[in-house]
Design a protein that fits this description.
The protein is α/β, with parallel strands linked by helices. Helices cover about 35% and strands about 20% of the residues.
Length: about 70
């Protein structure tokens, strides 16, 4: 089945009110997701709940592949 093949989590490129609403809805549904934001201030938009992880930093061509691999996206 599709569910048995599904690996990883959803990645939200965050920092906006809309992404926070989406992240909260996914977390409420117990769907694993990671939100990337560029500042600590943006982190405060997101709840501190188990299925949701917030990553703070800047992604570029060099570290993007490592980020995707590490977080199983």
């Amino acid at each position: 089945s599709y569910e048995s093949r599904a690996v990883g989590r959803i990645w939200i490129i965050g920092g906006t009110a809309e992404s926070a609403v989406l992240a909260k809805a996914l977390a409420h549904s117990q769907i694993q997701c990671i939100v990337s934001v560029t500042t600590e201030a943006a982190r405060s938009l997101y709840p501190n709940v188990a299925p949701l992880q917030v990553w703070v930093g800047r992604l570029n061509f060099i570290n993007l592949n490592e980020f995707l691999y590490q977080h199983q996206i």
